[in-house]
């Protein structure tokens, strides 16, 4: 029998990729906490909706649409039809690291000196004489290096997980790394030789769990759970992480800070599908994530909270106006 809108009005759907340790405990906690209010949670099943179909879920938690484009198309429609989606699929698709660096500067959060670079390669239909006539060529590499300094970090303008990141120590090394970037848009950043490094897990734009983190260590040893930041360092990290996360509008994110001479430099804060695996963030932080994420999803499912970014999208006032006119 087809499901009714009432039956799906308090259902939470989780979209995940290869992660193994977060989904089952999260769904268990949320189903337990939501039982008295009729809230249920499951791995979402999405496929082939019509443009007029009501969403099957009141809340969708997205941890994989950056790698599966179909999901994002579905999630945008679900937002329009009234579902709460964590994170905002419209903004997530538009967000980029160079923009975030510019934003951080405007907000008073320190970031490394950064330059965005034109793509090394383009799709076949690009005419290099006509389609690229607005590009400065050749680039003034000496000016770029004099601003950013050496060593420097070359990394993609989108994406995460420390993929395709290179540390270069000379102009020749930069050219060699840049020549391998293909069609990716890259940014070049000042290398911060850090004294300390933190990764802050941010949930609901109000909760932050700072952890010491060593990006140079093997993956399984990067999080340092037994030496949490304390005192003023912890408070500055929380304050700056909240400033960035609230401005970007992410309900789940991580913000990384490299600390040099007492200054916190925001290194990477485009992480809207943050690492939630228990073997990496460790048990105490993992339990905190389960609690905060289930609380957030429950509040959205019960309509105790509306995604604050929803009304930021221009089309909402026309949708509301059309609904009132037809009523």
Secondary structure elements and pairings:
Elements: H1 5-8, E1 11-15, H2 23-34, E2 40-43, E3 59-62, H3 69-80, E4 84-86, H4 89-94, H5 97-107, E5 114-117, H6 141-148, E6 152-156, E7 166-168, H7 171-178, E8 186-190, E9 196-203, E10 207-213, E11 223-224, H8 231-248, E12 252-260, E13 263-268, H9 278-281, H10 283-301, H11 315-326
Parallel strand pairs: 1-2, 1-3, 3-4
Antiparallel strand pairs: 5-8, 6-7, 6-8, 9-10, 9-12, 10-11, 12-13
Helix pairs in contact: 2-10
Keywords: ATP-binding, Nucleotide-binding
InterPro entries: ATP-grasp (IPR011761), ATP_grasp_subdomain_1 (IPR013815)
GO biological process, one term: SOS response
Q: Tags for this entry?
A:
327 residues, 4-stranded parallel β-sheet, Rossmann fold, D-amino Acid Aminotransferase, Chain A, domain 1, Dna Ligase, domain 1, single chain, 11 helices, 20% strand, alpha+beta
Shape: globular
Contiguous helical run count = 11
CATH topology group of the largest domain: Rossmann fold
What separation lies between the terminal Cα atoms?
A: 30 Å
Mean pLDDT: 92
CATH top level class name of the largest domain: Alpha Beta
Low-pLDDT stretches: 1-6
What Rg, in angstroms, do the CA atoms define? 22 Å
What order do the SSEs take from the amino end to the carboxyl end, as H and E? HEHEEHEHHEHEEHEEEEHEEHHH
Oligomer: single chain
Q: Give the structural class.
A: alpha+beta
Biggest beta sheet summary: 5 strands, antiparallel
Strand order of the largest sheet: 11-10-9-12-13
- CATH architectural group of the largest domain: 3-Layer(aba) Sandwich
Strand content: 15-25%
- Compute the number of strand runs: 13
Domain module count: 3
Helix content: 25-40%
